[in-house]
Each structure stands twice: as C-alpha cells, then as structure tokens.
Design a protein that fits this description.
alpha+beta, five-stranded antiparallel sheet, rod-shaped
Amino acid sequence: MTNHFHPLPATLRGFTLIELMITVAIVAILASVAYPAYTEQVARSRRADAQAVLMEAAQHMQRFYAAHNRYDLQLDGATANALPGTLQASPRAGTAAYTLSISAVDAGAFTLTATATGAQANDRCGNFTLTHTGARGVTGSGATVQDCWR
C-alpha cells in the first residue's frame, strides 16, 4: 500500500497564530487612537448645536424686549418671559445633551444657560452661558471660553 498523502498547496493554508496576533494588535492600536478622536468630535458637535440654540434663544429674548420694552415680563406686568419649547433642549430631537433655561433675568438684562446633561454631563466645557450683552461663558474646568465657543 502506498501513502497518497499530499500536503495542501500554499494557497489553501490558513493564517498562523503570529499573523493573527499581529493583525489584532494593529486593530487595537487603531481603535485606541480613533475612539477618543470620535468621542471628542461627537462632543464638539453637541457643543456647537447647544451654542446655536443659545443664540436663537438670545434672539427670542431680544424680540421679547422689542415687543415689551423689558426682558422679564410682558406688558401686562404679570406674565413672565419663558423660552419656547423648541428652545429648551439641544438637540431638539432625540436625547437632550443640553437643557436651556433663562438663569437670570430682570427688566434690563438676562443670562441664558445651557446645562450639560446625560452623556455630555462630564464634558470638559461644562455648561454654556450667554448674556444680553453677548458675553459668553463656560463652567468647565481646564477649558477656556475661546476653546469651547469655536
């Protein structure tokens, strides 16, 4: 009896364990670089959306002032100014990353605040503020107003 064993051709062989481990290591390195960049980009886009909604809320306040000659109350003196529902959260659809409110208001001044919530709560920029003079602020530590309001 003859042994008819023929080795597999090189094209049909599988990967070696070393080749597989090198591939896994490369994928892990790429993921460790890409994921933080991705999460920072997502946070940056949420901040930009919150800033846009804050600007729209400031426009609402200016229109209210033009109509009532003050920021806090309507002409009847009893009805307080409030942000419309479309200006109370950012983004406007889905899970809110920021909630917006009029944090301080009187007849001649206001401060709007976008408070970070949910996944955005630990963002380095913290909360955003915008006043009647256009002064911008952040409450986060380790981040400047210029870095966060770009």
